[in-house]
Amino acid sequence: MTLPNLNHYDSIQLTPEGQLKHFLTIEGLHEALLNEILDTAESFVDMSAQQVKKVPLLRGKTVANLFFEASTRTLSTFELAAKRLSADVLNLNISTSSTSKGETLKDTLMTLRAMHCDMFVVRHSASGAAHFIAEHVTPDVAVINAGDGRHAHPTQAMLDMLTIRQHKGDFSKLKVAIVGDILHSRVARSQIHALRILGAEEIRVIAPQTLLPRHIEAMGVKVFNEMSRGLRDVDVVIMLRLQKERMQTALLPSESEFYKLFGLTEAKLAYAKPDAIIMHPGPINRGVEIESSVADGPRSVILQQVTNGIAVRMAVMSMAMSGQLKQHQLRSEAAGA
Ligand code: NCD
Fold first, then answer.
1. Under-50 pLDDT residues of the chain
2. What is the pTM of this model?
3. 308 Cβ inside 6 Å of ligand 1
4. Which domains does the chain have, with CATH numbers?
5. Angle formed by the axes of helices 186-197 and 31-48, to 10°?
6. pLDDT digits over 131-154, tens only?
7. Does the CB atom of residue 263 touch ligand 1 within 6 A?
8. Do 171 and 212 contact (CB within 8 A), yes or no?
């Protein structure tokens, strides 16, 4: 499989009118569009609290969840989101061998094309997989990236932004710290883009040097190698999981050493602002990156992130479908004219 040059694919996800038609990456999107996603999601949060949790926005549409990598919360919240939009949902857990990824992906795509699905939600271990699929689907089919390699996890970042906005309001006054395995984290990359676009005052990454991508400063973040300095006065602390499955070599002396230096304990949390919120995309490793009492404590919003995941995914799916429908209408009008 030849991966597209990611920098040149920002425009693939928007219609010429600037509407979303795929959701592949946060990079290159405008603040107004991110706010539209957040506002639309907020209306679905209210709806989820009601007795009847369904709207007909995707009635008659088929959503296929193509998960080439394991997932619990992302897959189940995408499934619930699609069902609450009244879509029919197909979940495909497709395992993939590293040698035949390209072929497998292409073959799977051809098969799915023949089934006339309207939307693909894709998770894949290769960076660029969702872009690749978006380029090869028939027009009218929307592709949503549910995590590609180390590259992007845009719906996770947007559910995190929604959670931050619910607690803190205006982004322009916020200092946000992202802590841990930044190197392997598609979540961190998408969060950094989102926070920058939404105008956060300061974005920090805190990690040992071995878990930082080279030239991360170029993304507009401040780098810290110690929790005591990095957490000072922050409003939001985002902890990340140590992604051991992506570590080919030993990047750390030991888990216990990592916990000692970078694990979020009550003691280290004292460096942050007293009203700082604690986030984690999950799955959490208690005693590796976070102390149980912090994960379950009053400042943790980890479960609220999961709840918000449904609303954000509903927002993105309905916006992408409406962008596709608009495009379809324009194409039909042009063909008829
Ligand atoms: C994240 C992912 O898959 O990138 N998890 C998630 O989507 N909830 C982060 C992780 O696996 O650590």
1. 1-9, 98-99
2. 0.94
3. no
4. 9-153+306-336 (3.40.50.1370), 156-300 (3.40.50.1370)
5. 110
6. 999 998 988 999 999 999 999 999
7. no
8. no
